[in-house]
Amino acid sequence: MHNAIRLRKMLWIGLCLLGGVGGLAHATDPVEELDLKAAYIFNFIQFIEWPDSDMAAGNELSICVSPFSPLKRPLTALEGKPTAKGRTVRIKLLELAGIRHCRMLILQNADVEQALRMLRTLPPSHGVLTIADELTFVNPEIVIALAQQEGRIVFGISPDAAAKAGLTISSRLLRLAKVNR
After folding, report:
1. Structure confidence by residue, pLDDT tens digits, 84-121
2. Closest CA to 143 of 130, 127, 124
């Protein structure tokens, strides 16, 4: 229970970091769904450990977003933001040929299969976190799936997909997620 409250506080802090984006200009304004999802994505960074070899990539954490994604605009607001782990967020449009340079992939239905096909060509424990937004089908290779349910943002996590990608997800985050096996 205490960890759930702490995670919600961290998510709220993430929303504050987005300050001025969309509906966040006033505390009484409702938070736009896409801005809230962007805050979730930013906060997931705090609860994910990438493979040790990834640290050689420098202090940037590249988030590649589908050109079809409605999350492009709110994610762009994260550009240059520092994470709690001392890395700087970089937002890039997803180019399948350069997928190995992404630490996070934000996918839409239109590009899931192509992106996953490219990821399968990478070595095991490639360190790429896949996040699907409103995926209309279940795919066991997606690490995190975001969705809106009954007016709330929910997310599911596949620990198997995370392990295959070489990622370690904090138990605190796993407790708040719907765990998909």
Report:
1. 888 899 999 999 889 989 999 999 888 888 999 999 99
2. 130
pLDDT value at residue 17: 40
Q: Distances in Å between the alpha carbon of 63 and those of 102, 154, 168?
A: 6, 20, 18
Give the range among 84-98, 128-142, 164-178 with minimum mean pLDDT.
128-142
Residue 77's alpha-carbon distances to 22, 53, 159, 162, 175, in angstroms, are 10, 28, 29, 26, 28
What is the tens place of the pLDDT at every residue in 66-81?
A: 887 899 999 999 999 9
Coil vs helix vs strand at 73: helix
Nearest C-alpha neighbor of 54 from the set 157, 163, 165: 165
φ/ψ region of 49 (left if φ > 0, alpha if ψ in -120 to 50, else beta) reads beta
Q: How far apart are CA 125 and CA 123, in angstroms?
A: 6
Distance from C-alpha of 147 to C-alpha of 7, rounded to nearest angstrom: 18
Choose among 137, 138, 179: nearest CA to 162. Answer: 179
Q: What angle do CA 64, 33, 39 make, to 5 degrees?
A: 50
